[in-house]
Batch of 2 targets.
Target 1
Amino acid sequence: MSITTTIVMCILCDPARADKVQSLAHLNVNGCKALKTIPVLPNLIELYCSKCPGLTAIPVLPNLAELDCFACPGLTAIPVLSNLTKLCCWNCPGLTALPVLPNLAELYCWNCPGLTALPVLPNLAELYCFNCPGLTAIPDLPNLTWLNCSNCPGLTALPVLPNLTKLDCFDCRCLTAIPDLPNLAVLNCSNCRCLLTRPSVANVHDFGCPWLESRRAARLPQVIYLQRRCRLRRFVRLTTSRAFNEHFFAPSQKGGRWHKRRMEQDFEFNHKHIRL
Ligand SMILES: [Zn+2]
């Protein structure tokens, strides 16, 4: 009796199959713990090499149209892939930049803390770059239709994206303005606590945005009440209430950020001091 041990090995790591890879059009090596490099494969159209902890680089693959390389902690760059249309590179902490990919239509790069900027991608239609704390700007993307850049605290503004129809930018706590986007139909900008202006959209979620014009008007009776009561010494505690601070310290005002932080800490959605 002999004991047979099966060693699961991807086609690239298996010396017995090495001669078979050159002509491949589709290659799946997802999850290979042994993989360190990928050879130049001139006919490759689709490459799936996600969750490969040892992988540090992707070669230039002239015909590649789709690349899945998410959750590869050793990956530090993506090469110029002139025919690439879809790139999934989320959860790659080593990525600090992406090259110009002239045919890219879909980009999934969420949870990439090293990304500080994105290139101009002329054919990009869908961009999912949420949870990227290093990202400080969204470039001009003339063909973008869907954007999810939620929870990106480095974003303070968005460009005019002429073809955008759906925008998710909730939890962007430093975003102060969303420009008029001529084709926008769906907007979720909830919890953008510094947001001063947003476009008029039929389908909108904007709770937790105290500085929007509509929110300020709704709070006016509260504020008048506070101003009147705060002249009396025994109501001095009201000056530390959320509503008071939200009115008197705008995000852009001197002291505003400090008061905002203090409000976040002490009065998280707590209006218990105010009874109208
Ligand atoms: Zn392998």
Note: The pocket of zinc ion is lined by residues 9-10, 12-13, 29, 32, 34-35 (CB under 6 Å).
Target 2
Amino acid sequence: MRGPLRRLILTARAAIVVAALPIPASTLLYGQTTAPAFVGVRTFLGAPYVPRLETIEADFAVLGVPFDEGTWGQPGARYGPRDLRENSQEYHFYLTEGFYYIDQDRTVLKGKRWVDAGDVEVFPTVPVQTGEKVTAAVRTILGRKALPIVIGGDHSITFPVLRAYQSPLTLIHFDAHLDTWNAAPGNLDHSSWVNRTAALPHVRKVVQVGMRGLANDQEAMGNARKIGSTIITSEQIHRKGAAWALSRIPASERIYVTVDVDVLDPSVAPGTGTIEPDGLSFAELDDLLKGLPAKGRLVGLDVVEITPYRDPSGRTAQTAVRLIIDLLGAAFP
Ligand SMILES: [Mn+2]
């Protein structure tokens, strides 16, 4: 065989030989923290991908729920998990070495074991089945003694997540919106999930922080009063500060934190479906989150309602990743 065809075959053979050479383990996924941020398959902070949840051995397990069929506003939060993974790469160097704060000259989360458990497989138009998958996944993660970090998804996913818990807990809900509207009978959506969640026997107390805007109305307020929730508004936080707001949050043995990114001001977090002016600054929300571990043991968290199509800069997702790190760093230094 002569000519171009022979050359092509030789080139292909050489490529196969190169591809078969052993690759040092440090260049594979587990060593991703030594590579630049643009290298590698995207997992949350470059953590090892462990989709077989029953094998997880970790302190923190990140679980994606790409579901947004519960939304009344703009959809798109189904792309939240992949956007959070992409925009977490800026911090992936510190996954095992810990995260350093220049102001306190201290490092947190050094040596913590993270895994990315991948996404829950959703069933389009069958939200009940998707919800069952979410509950089963979180239950498995809890059974492996890892802390679930759930990345959504619209806010309706917090109900199936919390259904997986058994021990009493206080729900700390950051949001512009009460999410206590009357749903269609038997329905679960992102504006009514709090009613259902508050009815779970182990959810003993609900604290709602950052409420504001013209969407909240007497129907939502009436239902919030019925479940006895403590409401701290965005305006109160602007006027009286994060320390005052923290003083209003009761202490309890266990706390679960859910963050709708629309609690932040749209200038900080434009990538969300239901924008409301006059939201919290990054520093306000960050101070609140960092103060929470003094109120009780953190048993799980979720960050929801990130809609990347409204924010091509990726700043909403990266800000959310930073908030997750800061909360975990305060809870498990
Ligand atoms: Mn909201």
Note: The two ends are 66 Å apart (CA to CA).
